Amino acid sequence: MTRTNHEIDYRILGNEMQCVQIELDPQETVIAEPGSFMMMDNSIDMQTLFGDGSQQTGGFLGKLFSAGKRLLTGENLFMTAFTNNGYGKQTVSFASPYPGRIIALDLFELGGKIVCQKDSFLCAAKGVSVGIEFQRKLGTGLFGGEGFIMQKLEGDGMAFVHSGGHVIERVLQPGEMLKIDTGCVVAYTKEINYDVQFVGGVKNTLFGGEGMFFATLSGPGKVWIQTLPISRLAGRIMAYGTYNRKEEGSVLGGLGNLLDGDGSW
């Protein structure tokens, strides 16, 4: 079996705020989400594509269907293609949108398909299809939250997804199950069975603070887990911005707010 997608070389740079540097041979192309671009060499040309950027044969209707699927996942209708139109090797770089890690996924080695959170895709080799993956079970749709509508990356090229915080990789054996917060799932291989489960117990539901449901991932397969989902980070920031800090007295509280950039006393 040989690869049909463009073959690209890469380097992941940085620690907390990472970027991926893609090295393109002449006429090689990488596709990326709008807004992820950081920098590129002079001979690389940028082109906006309608749909997911894969090598489609269905004409305009095929591209329209592809764009519609992306719209359902909350992503942009368009993607951006970066092509090396020069004579030597050229590089283009893409950056993570928030602190975390970039995960390199070789679809050729991972069975041709990866399912990932709908906001985690960063970039991929030209030919990789970026589509929608609905969870099949009704319970997942009703209660799964972030895990209900996922993205699927299909092809045999390199793809890159980003995560929040630290990344943990787990290989699940046949029949082995992992219970996890739906937002902490970054990606998993196609053999993994994804479902949701009720936490149970009145005290857990009312006072546990972890939600009423969590995801269950059953092996065999590989799972990538993030320690800081963007939804959790955003929730903490919003809570902090509206929280009245009781540990600071009336004077110190106003001084603390002033130092934080809030001029209101």
Neighbour order of strands in the largest sheet: 5-6-3-10-13-8
Assembly type? single chain
CATH topology, by name, is: Double-stranded beta-helix
> For the terminal residues, how far apart are their CA atoms?
67 Å
Rounded to an integer in angstroms, the radius of gyration calculated over CA atoms is: 21 Å
Give the fraction of residues assigned to helices.
Answer: 10-25%
Structure description:
This protein is of the alpha+beta class and 265 residues long. It has one domain: Double-stranded beta-helix (4-Layer Sandwich), CATH 3.60.160.10. The protein contains 5 helices and 19 strands. It has helices at 59-72, 138-143, 202-207, 230-242, 250-259, and strands at 9-13, 19-24, 29-32, 37-40, 44-50, 78-84, 90-95, 100-106, 113-117, 121-125, 129-134, 149-154, 158-164, 167-172, 177-180, 185-189, 193-198, 213-218, 221-226. The chain has a 6-stranded antiparallel β-sheet with strand order 5-6-3-10-13-8. The protein has a 6-stranded antiparallel β-sheet with strand order 11-12-9-16-19-14. The longest helix is centred in the N-terminal third of the chain and has 14 residues, at 59-72. The radius of gyration is 21 Å and the shape is globular. Residues 140-145, 201-210 and 247-256 have low confidence and may be disordered.
